[in-house]
Write a structure and sequence with these properties.
The complex is a heterodimer of chains A (446) and B (287).
Chain A lengths: L1 H19 L24 E7 L4 H14 L3 E7 L2 H13 L6 E4 L1 H8 L6 H4 L13 H10 L8 E14 H7 L7 H14 L4 E4 L4 H13 L5 H6 L8 H15 L14 H7 L3 E7 L8 H6 L7 E5 L11 E9 L7 H13 L2 H5 L6 E2 L14 H14 L10 H16 L5 H12 L8
Chain B lengths: L1 H34 L1 E2 L8 E2 L3 H7 L2 H33 L5 H13 L2 H11 L6 H8 L11 H14 L2 H11 L4 H9 L4 H12 L1 H15 L3 H5 L13 H9 L5 H30 L1
Antiparallel strand pairs in B: 1-2
Helix pairs in contact in B: 1-14, 2-14, 3-7, 3-8, 3-11, 3-13, 4-8, 8-11, 11-14, 13-14
Classes of the chains: A alpha/beta (446), B mainly alpha (287).
Chain lengths: 446, 287
């Protein structure tokens, strides 16, 4: 009886396991794109749109504007949390979900979903002639190059960069502190803030391991703009002298008291929360926090600061302001879509049409659309206007791409940087460890 | 007659077996299949790499540390359950004042989502504004860098795990309700003190509950992803990481599913081996 049961169970298990190997199904790699359906005149078309960006409230307003100007097309939106979306979309597409438009995190997701997406060349006939000329060349080229096969699968809505520094302009004005451009000036500002407002944290940023890479490569980018690109592409070893120097420089900012080690215990949204509530003078974060420059955004989100400015991270040791930047918010049409023409119309609206002005009010992305102008009602103070200009300038500065090997970053790199800051490991030893792990075969080189 | 009974039993078991087959065996099959490949979440671009992923996982110091942490956290949880959990359950069952209040205090962390509980706890560990350091500051201690130093990070997690003693309390409380009180009354008449009653009478009487508690806490420690992920996040330097957070972190990025699946298969086999060993040891002792 026992043997019979065991064999039965094994047969069931083997049968089911054998079924697992089938990678076919609608939307699979070997499948041909779905035939395009053409809606009869007057027949409404509903497009299924999945994304993680921009925020749902912004997107709903933008979609309403699109539907108003395209009465025959309805958009059915499903929005996800960013990290969750990276897992949900590849599974849904390979599982045959009939989607018409999908948002693609250009750097993090292109290669995990491109096999289920239509190349832009397949549907560019539905875009206006010369559409590439309407867009900044760099984000489009980045979206093209990031794909393993060098094919453009998505049109990027804009670019993001990190790190940048937001400042509580109202507080700094009260203390007579000018926006610091160098680390020495930041040190003077920190000392002044500590003396005048002991309850305020001078500088906050995330203490999470992933963010340490952003900080490190922003600082190293000031003197070695391509270091991040070179390391990730395997052109330089992780224990190269520039990397050791970068680790040493970053640690020195803590040793000098410009940054406080206590910020390393701040996780998630806490740094932005502290800054937004006036408990921190400077916030070092990504350009997606530029929303805080907008008076309308601050009021809507109950952020109590009267005025906010932005700048590049102050320069250390005579370099140039820098940030790593990359195309973001790619919009693609899956192979499974049967409404390519209508989907292309929506993508056009969102990337080079009136939709840009709708979603870009949040200032989360710097739009790819060349003719975009920020609505005057968004940036009301001079510091906000100057700050947004500084963000655009540093994003377009031509530094390394904002790219990472995520597993390596989460498991090894971020922790190694934190160990250096905390004095647990010397910079050269940490760099050797990074190189050893990078070449272990555990983390595929990009 | 016997075959009829077996047939009826099989009929009743069939839905459960079908459920088990679909959700466990199939999932395990997918995992094993994926573990020998280099592939992304779309599973359309798989390259077979043989046992390479397994070799890389078991030679990773971080993985070995994560396994050891799993066992350490399990040991702490079991020790807390068999001592504090047992003591609290017996004390609450003996009719102390504010019984319901204390039940709520100890059971609440086990009843609310662990992610929420651990997130709040993680926030309490902030160096400057955390409640823990604020409390210690009152008595002149600190501030302690809870997430930046290995010792304090482990201590913080131990506190969190000990505070999750609510489930063992529930197990003990339900078993205490069926305990033969005549034995206790006899012991009292014979002059046994409360220490003797706890140690020599009640503890041995709840032997079967101890087994349930040990097994559930042990296996629960392999599912403590949310406890670690939302409190220390494995910091500092990944030293408080457990297998769950290891698998999650290694899965992120391009073509990582095969590697993460190999790690998951190893953990699953390891957990099954521990459970089997525990069952065998328990049976031998029972004989």
């Amino acid at each position: 009886m026992r043997a019979t049961s065991l064999i039965g169970a094994l047969v069931v298990a083997l049968g089911l396991t054998a079924g697992c190997g089938d990678s076919g199904g609608v939307g699979g790699a070997g499948e041909k794109p779905a035939t395009q359906k053409t809606a009869a005149a007057g027949e409404p078309v509903t497009l299924k749109y999945w994304t993680w960006f921009p925020p749902e409230s912004t997107l709903k307003t933008t979609i309403a504007a699109f539907e108003k100007s395209n009465p025959g097309i309805k958009i059915e939106l499903r929005e996800f949390e960013a990290a969750d979306y990276q897992k949900q979309l590849p599974l849904a597409l390979s599982g045959g979900e009939q989607l018409d438009i999908v948002g693609v995190q250009v750097s993090a997701m292109t290669n995990s979903v491109h096999e289920q997406l239509r190349p832009v060349s397949e549907w560019e006939a539905d875009l206006p002639a010369g559409w590439r000329d309407k867009l900044a060349a760099s984000p489009v080229a980045q979206s093209e190059k990031i794909a393993k096969d060098g094919v453009l699968y998505s049109i990027p809505m804009g670019s993001i960069g990190s790190a940048i520094m937001l400042s509580n302009t109202a507080m700094l004005g009260e203390l007579g502190v000018a926006a610091p451009k160098t680390m020495d000036e930041l040190k003077a500002a920190v000392d002044k803030i500590k003396a005048a407002k002991p309850d305020v944290k001078p500088v906050v940023f995330s203490g999470e391991p992933y963010w340490q890479e952003e900080m490190l490569f922003t600082l190293s980018g000031q003197t070695a703009p391509t270091l991040s690109d070179d390391l990730l592409a395997g052109r330089k070893p992780w224990n190269a002298p520039q990397m050791v120097q970068a680790l040493t420089d970053y640690k020195s900012l803590f040793d000098k008291g410009i940054f406080d080690k206590s910020v390393l215990s701040l996780k998630g949204n806490r740094p932005a929360e502290l800054f937004g509530s006036g408990q921190a003078a400077f916030l070092i974060d990504g350009s997606w926090q530029s929303s805080m420059l907008s008076d309308i955004y601050r009021k809507a989100n109950k952020i109590s600061i009267a005025d906010v400015g932005a700048s590049a991270v102050p320069v250390l040791g005579g370099g140039q302001p820098a940030a790593r930047a990359f195309a973001e918010g790619g919009l693609s049409i899956p192979k499974a879509s049967q409404h390519v023409k209508e989907a292309a119309a929506f993508i056009q609206f969102m990337t080079m049409g009136p939709g840009v002005a709708e979603w870009a009010k949040d200032l989360v992305l710097v739009p790819t659309f060349k003719d975009f102008q920020v609505d005057p009602s968004v940036l009301t103070s001079q510091s906000a206007k100057d700050g947004y200009g500084a963000v655009i300038q540093v994003i377009n500065g031509g530094g390394s791409a904002r790219d990472s090997n995520q597993a390596f970053l989460n498991q090894v790199e971020g922790n190694a940087i934190l160990d250096v800051i905390r004095g647990e490991t010397a910079p050269d030893k940490a760099a050797d460890h990074l190189q050893e792990e990078w070449s272990s075969g555990r983390y595929a080189a990009q | 007659m016997r075959s009829k009974a077996l047939g009826a039993a099989a009929l009743f078991l069939l839905p459960l077996l079908a459920f088990y087959g679909v959700y466990y065996l199939y999932a395990f099959g997918v995992l094993v299949d994926a573990s020998r490949t280099r592939t992304s979440l779309s599973f359309t671009d798989a390259t077979v790499v043989g046992w390479e992923n397994f070799r890389l996982v078991i030679t990773d110091e971080l993985f070995l540390r994560a396994v050891l942490n799993n066992l350490l956290f399990a040991a702490v949880s079991i020790a807390a359950a068999l001592t504090l959990g047992f003591f609290l359950a017996v004390s609450l069952a003996s009719g102390v004042r504010l019984r319901r209040f204390f039940f709520t205090v100890f059971l609440l962390p086990s009843l609310i989502p662990l992610s929420l509980f651990a997130t709040v706890f993680g926030r309490m560990l902030e160096t400057d504004d955390g409640a823990v350091n604020a409390l210690l500051g009152v008595v002149g201690i600190g501030p302690v860098d809870w997430l930046g130093s290995t010792g304090p990070s482990y201590a913080a997690l131990f506190v969190l795990l000990v505070y999750l003693v609510g489930l063992p309390i529930m197990y003990y409380t339900s078993d205490l309700a069926t305990t033969n009180t005549a034995v206790l009354e006899s012991a009292m008449i014979d002059g046994a003190g409360s220490g003797h009653m706890y140690r020599l009478i009640l503890f041995p009487m709840l032997r079967n509950t101890h087994k349930t508690v040990i097994l559930s806490v042990l296996l629960g420690s392999f599912r403590a992803f949310d406890v670690v992920f939302f409190s220390t996040k494995g910091e500092p330097g990944g030293r408080t990481q457990i297998t769950g957070t290891y698998i999650y972190n290694t899965m992120l990025g391009e073509n990582r599913i095969g590697y993460a699946s190999a790690a998951a298969v190893i953990v699953l086999v390891f957990a099954l081996a521990i459970s089997a060993l525990q069952v065998l040891v328990t049976r031998r002792r029972a004989r």
